[in-house]
Amino acid sequence: MKKLFAFLLIALLLCSLACGTNGTPNDAGAEVTRTNPAEPDAQAASPEAQQPETAQVSETAQPEAQDTETPEIPESDPVAELRTELIEVFDVMEHMEVGASGTTLCSHDLDGDGTEEDIGVEIDMEEDTLTVIDGERSITLESSSMVYYIYLCDLDANSPYHNLIVCADWGSDSFITTALHPEGDRLIIDRQVDGYVSWDDEAFWVDELTGIFGTNSGVRPYSGDAFEPESEWLVCAVPSAEYVAENRQNLYEGGVLLHLVRDLPCTVDGQPAVITKGNCLLLLRFNDSHTQAKVCTEDRSVQAIVDIDFNEEEWLYLIDGVEQDEYFDNLFYAD
Ligand SMILES: [Ca+2]
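Above: the input record for the complex with calcium ion. Below: its predicted structure, written as tokens.
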């Protein structure tokens, strides 16, 4: 009996010791998640958690995640109620006779006074100008090419007049879009945007230039009486995950799938983070001041915002004081 009691006592002691040694580290096991700033409890549990302000994004992409669909845009942009009506589109050069310097495109009551006036253009190749004419009104726009599309439209049903939107190539695919409306004896410029305009889904979409991460452009809708942008964010052409998987090498060459060769400081879920070198990124959006870019990792598992210091005079994009082309080894349009 004594032997049995002694055995039970020893067993009880061993059990107690075992539980004790296992229990303490388990309490401190929160260290594993200390680098995740989204878990404040983990930060409080570990002294080391106080110094890392950054979340490390794994270098290893998850291959099985590649069959997910096109990345979800981080947040939807509210597109205002679309009021724009497209009346007609003119390919100016198709309307011109060979050798002519001008032409009448149509007769239309642009100013809304109840009487139609002739709308046309004159082109001066020597002066590199395009003159838009609306009856007795005209305005001369500087230009240097011969590609002109003119959209006759009603940007706002509540305004008494209709509008002209002129898309011209200033040379080497440097398009500029000019929105005009009649006022008194003049044609007034509402807005000029560096980019190519097109019409889709009851709105004008302007493909505007950027140099962020070597990307050429992004697109956003414009509408309203003064041809106003409907969003601060411009959407980039993002290939589907399936396309990326099938055309990975070509995407590298085209500069679409960006290969990080330097740790990239960014914000993930509102918290400072770093996407480590070795990851590949897709540019989803950028803002119109060129100061922020939204990106996602190739496997779509992480979406982040990158703050950019844009030097417009020198057309430089700096991230944390370092030029963007030092972060990637395959920018299509490097600084
Ligand atoms: Ca009229």
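Notes for the reader.
Residues 1-55, 58-80 have pLDDT under 50 and may be disordered.
The CA atoms of residues 59 and 279 lie 6 Å apart.
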